[in-house]
Amino acid sequence: MIINVDKTNLNKLLGVPNRQLTIPAYQRPYAWEFEQVDELWHDIVETLGSNHFMGSVVLCSPDQARPEVIDGQQRLTTIILLLGLIRDQYQHLKPDLVGRVQQFLENAYAEPDLRFKFRPGNANAKVFTDFILCGPEDSSRRDWATVRQLDSHELNRNKRMIENTERLAGYLNQLLAASDNPLKALEQIERKIMTGLEFVVIDVPDIANAFIIFETLNDRGLALSAGDLLKNHLLAAAAKTNESVEALAEDWDKIIDNLEGGDITRFLRHYLLTQHAQVQKDDVFALFKKEVSSRGVKQLIKDLKQMSRFYGQFIKPELVSDNAVREVYQNLNTLRASMCYSALLAGSAVLNNEALRDFARLCEVLTFRYSTICSKDSKELEKVYHQAAKVLASQGAAGLVEASKILEAASPSSAEFVLAFRNQSMGRHYIVNYIFRGIENHLSPEEKTLQNTLGVHIEHIMPQTLSPAWRDTLGEDADQHALYINRWGNLTLLGGKLNIGASNMPFASKIKIYQQSKIALAHELATEECWGLEQIDERQQRLAGIAEGIWRI
């Protein structure tokens, strides 16, 4: 393998005539967060007058006029973006210096397709060219003030780039405003960018070896996710066997789209848990390399595309066409119950809607009993879900009974569940909402009072702040107010307007408000003659019994 390694700076990197650094179509769009942009800016301004090492850039140059940037896209895009902002400041401070910068952005005498010295990926190319690369006097240049008037598709694809441009412009404006000599300050920044930022450029003649270099560098500590590394590894494997790298990149983008914003590394980990008993986040890439070796790129990508579509439905249940399955997925979403996703992935691939609904409901109930109420070891529960997933993955729908028995066997007993429930306090709002809405729907299955969930709130029966009247009512028990105030037995659901009205009224006054409520949990409180610690304990015991019946295996 022939590798050219060269220490360089932006002056040399962009100074080659009629050459265009190209971001290949298969690379992900520009995605730097504010954190990385801020770090770059501070690295530049805090090291003025000295050099700063920016790391490596991996190029693949089968075509010397269009070397492809395999690693370094995010840094180069951001730095060139900043260079464009500096050029625009010269337009205001000293217009004859605009050309000095523009010569490093544009090839003056090149063919149209090589006009600019840097070409971002397809998602960002047009906006970056029209708003950044074109010079201030260019008729093709678009006014930055109109950038947020782009159609929603373009805005979404270029969101990070637009936000980071505005952030860097703000930093630059602050720097110049604070300087006694803005022109000198601007030239300092320009010189720093062009000559003071040092790179090691690794130039490899073929794409397969470029990917190997990229992977090796990132194995040594550059911050990339397992998803990024796997994509690179798959592209390298495709290049070695002369498969279409572009087609595989499109398939990978489809996988990302299917996830509906879900984290790629988490998805890959849950996918692996259908086969492997234990998978840590740091294990994901190494295990997938073995999968690629044993199954091949095409089969693995095909499977990931299918599974990513199922996973996207976990993230966005509204995508599920079957009403019953969608409802269970929404409940799992409310519970933040992602641990069961490995079993649900395996089930989604082999079960019909009715069987999937029942299996998903079993996952919901087990997660609720095991983790939410009984607070048992989550690592052990993950092993249980792996066992069920492995059965479904190996036996298909025929393994449903065995997989279900594995989950049922892990469930805490009724006695354990009721005891744990009796001692629960408010905790996270989403859990309280989930439980009380489940109980309310059980008490009033025909009512539609909870359809508009935004209008229903959690009400403390004994108020959070004790009035003198409440202190008198509680007597000596008032000292235990803090211990009982958030107990589930002291909570109910109540419509928003009624909730505001109830506030910290005496219980006798609250009864009248509860009588007006269509919510059964609140309405039944009107039968209580008084309210104190004894009533809270009794009600929580009753709710525990109801919950055990609702969330029963």
Automatic annotation (TrEMBL):
It holds the Pfam family GmrSD_N. This is DUF262 domain-containing protein. InterPro entries: GmrSD_C (IPR011089), GmrSD_N (IPR004919). Residues 11-235 form the GmrSD restriction endonucleases N-terminal domain. Residues 426-545 form the GmrSD restriction endonucleases C-terminal domain.
